Amino acid sequence: AWLHYEGQLSNKGLAKWADCFRSIICIPGERGGVLNTAIGELASGIEALTGNKPEVTDAASAVDRKRCIAAGIIGAMPLDGLAISLAEAEQLPDEGFIIRTIDNGDLCSIAIAGRSERGLMYGVFHFLRLLQTEGIGENGFNVVEQPAFRLRMLNQWDNMDGSVERGYAGRSIFYRNYELLARSPRIKDYARLLASVGINGIAINNVNVHRQETKLITERYLPDVARVADTFRAYGIRLYLSVNFAGPLELGELDTADPLDPRVQAWWKERANEVYSYVPDFGGFLVKADSENRPGPFTYGRDHADGANMLADALAPYGGIVLWRCFVYNCQQDWRDRSTDRAKAAYDHFRPLDGRFRDNVILQIKNGPMDFQVREPVSPLFGAMPNTNHMMEFQVTQEYTGQQRHVCFLVPQWKEVLDFDTRLKGEGTRVKDLAAGKVHPYTHCGVTAVSNIGDDDNWTGHHLAQSNLYGYGRLMWNPDLEAEAIAEEWTRQTFGGDAAVVETITGWLMESWGTYESYTAPLGVGWMVTPHYHYGPDVDGYEYSKWGTYHFADWKGIGVDRTQATGTGYTAQYEAENARVYENLATCPDELLLFFHHVPYIHKLHSGKTVIQHIYDTHFEGVQRVEAQLASWLSLEGKIDEERFRHVTGRAKEQLENAKLWRDVINTYFYRKSGISDEQGRTIY
Ligand code: GCU
């Protein structure tokens, strides 16, 4: 993936610094600790980049502190001669770092100083990334970095039978036949990939906790869980587990899972105690409760706060936290019932509970009110509970965005979400400020996402889908980075620095989300996918279903009326100014029009086109864009190794065929419904 380094250091400007790469001075840390990981990564990275193995030595025995890389932890390393002042360094939070070059004529050196072991490791990976992407110029480096969000997590949706829910890259790297692959080198490689982009937490089993997975918190599996935790710990990543709310029942130990029953409370305390005896720095429990038929507190007439707090009390003595998901809605809806709106559910369930959750509970809220569609508005719940910790959940796995058969670089989508102005505390209350804990005084907050990896050789099914995993980490470290800069960085590290390669792949990534949207889901409508699988078109697949996912297309128009005036009233969940923008046809942005309004096909968009003509045009254009992307990819033949070239070519051809199917199914469906012809007379069936 992006850590292959081989020969990627250019000679440009290098001469001056070349000597520094011969030795690394560092006071060694604990065996298996993050500091040693960092130094190991630094040494092997430099060796791969330059072809020379640096000598690693500790400061005391070092004769020449010049002409070296001095790496260490602020407070524990001598700073003299390194152009870093203690006062400056102490401003940094725990995970921050400084990279600075010291140019004393022909006696140059490089300092990498972390505020903590983790900070140092992030500094090392950043340093190596800079060498890979830009090389080291005449002026060297002067970098000070710190992460925007405290929790930067991933959720594996891996099952112990080895399958991965919504996984498009092979089988699980964590499990096979109901056993943990606790010693698998793949897990260590994964930890490296994640640490290199700043991920610091991982939940290693599916949120849908089935029978066997319920036992992950018992003696049966804890020794193996502890081994996996060791692997991640060495890379500064904390381990979390998804738990089954009905655990005491499922394991046949109690006849209830009622959170207010003292026996249930004692049971969870016992479990927590045992987990911590194996994994002393265990992160906590991730919980999907009363959601899509999973058990939860509702069975006992209790609410989400009762359920989450019970688990929180069990974890509190050890510093653990509960990540309680807000993906709660009625999945047994009657499609004839026009008053129930799934989009409203999370807010309606949770908002009234503000202030009732323990301090070590975090509500995990999906980025949109529905379910990771290609386009949705931002969830109005995010930030709407000032007294309850929040984290936002994204989806790196491409469930609804082409399933790693289509290219769909999601960083631009996530960036739009993070930049969204909720206006909850006046103009400029952006999602990224809320997630950073800058608006409400959250004790815990941050971001998480569903991972997209499996045991395929290339990790992600499609080579280019690696960019989403990389991009997630980079954007969540610094949400102010430009999506294009991230795409380019990834391309350079993964495919090398050839100008045509970088330009073509970066360009493809950057327009891929818009392209995917154009041939699939116009104007925010969503859900016109094959039920259950969520790949390929099926316009009415979910239209008469129990899942609450409708487009309401008839012969006159399409869209879901979510206004307060005539619809479900969903718009009222937003702050007043945003609510007005969405409520009003004149101000509602085109790309979300059909999410908020039911309009005639001849309704004129801000773009000047009618809705029906927009549907036709975007679907024809979307396919043309895929054709153009494929053509420019093919022009790279000979500049990319054959294996990856063939692989990506194969996927791109499949994407094109599937895009044509989308185009023809969607256009034909709406032509037949509306009876309105395409202005340009193109082929519609
Ligand atoms: C989606 C997805 C499910 C998943 C669920 C969740 O509905 O299709 O596979 O379990 O989200 O987030 O819990």
TrEMBL record:
<dbReference type="InterPro" id="IPR029018">
    <property type="entry name" value="Hex-like_dom2"/>
</dbReference>
<keyword id="KW-0624">Polysaccharide degradation</keyword>
<comment type="subunit">
    <text>Homodimer.</text>
</comment>
<keyword id="KW-0119">Carbohydrate metabolism</keyword>
<dbReference type="InterPro" id="IPR037054">
    <property type="entry name" value="A-glucoronidase_C_sf"/>
</dbReference>
<dbReference type="InterPro" id="IPR011395">
    <property type="entry name" value="Glyco_hydro_67_aGlcAse"/>
</dbReference>
<dbReference type="InterPro" id="IPR011099">
    <property type="entry name" value="Glyco_hydro_67_C"/>
</dbReference>
<comment type="similarity">
    <text>Belongs to the glycosyl hydrolase 67 family.</text>
</comment>
<keyword id="KW-0378">Hydrolase</keyword>
<feature type="active site" description="Proton donor">
    <location>
        <position position="292"/>
    </location>
</feature>
<keyword id="KW-0858">Xylan degradation</keyword>
<feature type="active site" description="Proton acceptor">
    <location>
        <position position="371"/>
    </location>
</feature>
<feature type="domain" description="Alpha glucuronidase N-terminal">
    <location>
        <begin position="1"/>
        <end position="127"/>
    </location>
</feature>
<protein>
    <recommendedName>
        <fullName>Xylan alpha-1,2-glucuronidase</fullName>
        <ecNumber>3.2.1.131</ecNumber>
    </recommendedName>
</protein>
<dbReference type="InterPro" id="IPR011100">
    <property type="entry name" value="Glyco_hydro_67_cat"/>
</dbReference>
<dbReference type="InterPro" id="IPR005154">
    <property type="entry name" value="Glyco_hydro_67_aGlcAse_N"/>
</dbReference>
<dbReference type="Pfam" id="PF07488">
    <property type="entry name" value="Glyco_hydro_67M"/>
</dbReference>
<dbReference type="GO" id="GO:0046559">
    <property type="term" value="F:alpha-glucuronidase activity"/>
</dbReference>
<dbReference type="GO" id="GO:2000886">
    <property type="term" value="P:glucuronoxylan catabolic process"/>
</dbReference>
<dbReference type="GO" id="GO:0033939">
    <property type="term" value="F:xylan alpha-1,2-glucuronosidase activity"/>
</dbReference>
<keyword id="KW-0326">Glycosidase</keyword>
<dbReference type="InterPro" id="IPR017853">
    <property type="entry name" value="GH"/>
</dbReference>
<feature type="domain" description="Glycosyl hydrolase family 67 C-terminal">
    <location>
        <begin position="460"/>
        <end position="682"/>
    </location>
</feature>
<feature type="active site" description="Proton acceptor">
    <location>
        <position position="399"/>
    </location>
</feature>
<feature type="domain" description="Glycosyl hydrolase family 67 catalytic">
    <location>
        <begin position="140"/>
        <end position="459"/>
    </location>
</feature>
<dbReference type="Pfam" id="PF03648">
    <property type="entry name" value="Glyco_hydro_67N"/>
</dbReference>
<dbReference type="Pfam" id="PF07477">
    <property type="entry name" value="Glyco_hydro_67C"/>
</dbReference>
<dbReference type="GO" id="GO:0005576">
    <property type="term" value="C:extracellular region"/>
</dbReference>
